[in-house]
Amino acid sequence: MPVSRIIRSFLALLLSAWLGAVPSVHAAPGNDKTDPTAPENPGRILFILASSKVHGRSTIPASISFGEVVNAWDTFQAAGYPVDFVSPDGGEVPILDTYVGKEMEPRLKDDRIMNGLRNTATPAQVDPARYRAVYYVGGSNAMYGVPEHPVLQKIAMHVYERNGGVISAVCHGTAGIVHLTLASGQALVAGRRITGYPEEHEKQDAPYFKQLPFLMRKTVEARGGFFHAVDGQQPYVEVDGRVVTGQNYASATQVAQAVVELLAGRTAQPPRRDPKTA
């Protein structure tokens, strides 16, 4: 064999090995049983979580909402959508015991979810072309580090504008969408019905409240959105085009169900609304 052919073969092997070593985002073990590039694969869902362990610059502990992860994850998995996790810092995200209800405790041993939450990707590792929807997870730390993160913003808007995908959020996770801007320069929430955890439901005399970088309702309305919420802890979801938001923890499953319906080409049904709410 000519020396030149040997050299070319050797260089090709080196290139293949290098390409195989390039890092990419993978779903937690057990999530991805199909080729994500195959035509029959429905695409992936990206869960966006916060990394902060405290409120603002305080020492007050903060956490993701574990149940908001689990309930949505179960819904997406049942519909055949693999799930990936990303956070501003990557790696493990905080889960406080107070954010894990009794019914959710067994799921702390579910490696399909926990491996993902212990090893979230950094924003730089995410290829937004792979996703059909993003889901902003709530919890007390969702107000910090996510809403203003420029790469997370670009990922979400790529999914929405270039992939024709869905942007969804639940509870404090709605904070992640309030600063999103369309290519036109208009705020994503402008002219849309939005819900999330409003400031009137916060404990405004508690120390953590002083750390909040902005107020949910006030900020959505300042961006031209129409913020709606109901009293109590019942599920409440707003579906406006390809933007889906849920008010509270109890709404996580319904938010995920609405996303699945939209991705399937069905019109997601908005909730019955109490005319007394605003």
Automatic annotation (TrEMBL):
Domain of life: Bacteria
Family statement: Belongs to the peptidase C56 family. HSP31-like subfamily.
Taxon lineage: Bacteria, Pseudomonadati, Pseudomonadota, Gammaproteobacteria, Lysobacterales
Organism of this sequence: Tahibacter amnicola
DJ-1/PfpI domain ranges (all copies): 68-261
InterPro entries (alphabetical): Class_I_gatase-like (IPR029062), DJ-1/PfpI (IPR002818), Prot/Nucl_acid_deglycase (IPR050325)
Keywords: Glutamine amidotransferase, Lyase, Signal, Stress response
CDD domains: GATase1_Hsp31_like
PANTHER family per the UniProt record, alphabetical: GLUTATHIONE-INDEPENDENT GLYOXALASE HSP31-RELATED, PROTEIN/NUCLEIC ACID DEGLYCASE DJ-1-RELATED
Protein name per its UniProtKB record: Type 1 glutamine amidotransferase domain-containing protein
Secretion signal, residue range per the UniProt entry: 1-27
